[in-house]
Write a structure and sequence with these properties.
By secondary structure, this protein is mainly alpha-helical. It has helices at about 5-50, 70-120, and strands at about 55-60, 60-65. The protein has a two-stranded antiparallel sheet. InterPro entries: PFD_beta-like (IPR002777), PfdB (IPR012713), Prefoldin (IPR009053).
């Protein structure tokens, strides 16, 4: 491939950085969603137990006994925090996808200009795909 003009190279670099950021956001979001499912499952099981049931929680390499109310409260707080993280990451994901769409359009415009100015120069657009 021929040497890209600096303006096009900059757009491509920004596009790749945004793609990497999106991948990172999606991975973190996926991890939080998995943890949220675990918390919801644990919460559902604990709420089925009688009030005086023995409940243990893992703290490092130890299991510590706790009561039902404390366990439910702790899980509800964790669930709330996870939902907040997921909401924040969803907003970041949306913004990054918009940024990628704009950069993709800008790259394709630059490629069209370069193709028009370069005559026989072979160029191809940036394909739109899920990130």
């Amino acid at each position: 491939m021929a040497q890209l003009p600096p303006s096009l190279q900059d757009l491509v670099n920004r596009f790749q950085q945004a793609q990497n950021q999106l991948q990172s956001v999606l991975l973190r979001k996926q991890q939080y969603e998995a943890e949220l499912r675990d918390v919801e499952k644990a919460l559902g099981e604990i709420e089925k137990l009688p009030q005086d049931a023995k409940i243990y929680k893992s703290v490092g390499s130890f299991l510590l006994q706790t009561n039902k109310d404390a366990a439910v409260q702790e899980l509800k707080e964790r669930k709330e925090l996870l939902e907040l993280h997921i909401k924040t990451l969803s907003r970041q994901e949306s913004m990054l996808r918009e940024q990628l769409d704009k950069l993709r359009d800008d790259i394709n415009k630059e490629l069209a200009k370069a193709k028009g100015a370069g005559g026989a120069q072979q160029t191809g657009g940036v394909a739109k795909g899920g990130g």
